[in-house]
Specification:
mainly alpha, membrane, transmembrane
Length: about 80
Amino acid sequence: MVINKTFNNMIIKEKNKRGWIRIVEAFVAILLVTGVLLVIINKQYIGKDDISAKVYDVELSILREIQSDTALRDSILQAGTLPK
């Protein structure tokens, strides 16, 4: 009877070890999939053009044109406030 109990305990411990191994395998699989998704998303983000420098250059050229032209400055000052 004692031998049977120890044998049953060994079987239960072996099943518990298998359960932990499956949990670890699932966790590693989730980490792997997450890592691959992050790499793919990061590559797509890097591939996009950043237009902020172009917008800044256009804004700067418009403001310089307004600064140098008196007629433009006067028309802007007379425009008043924008409607809400």
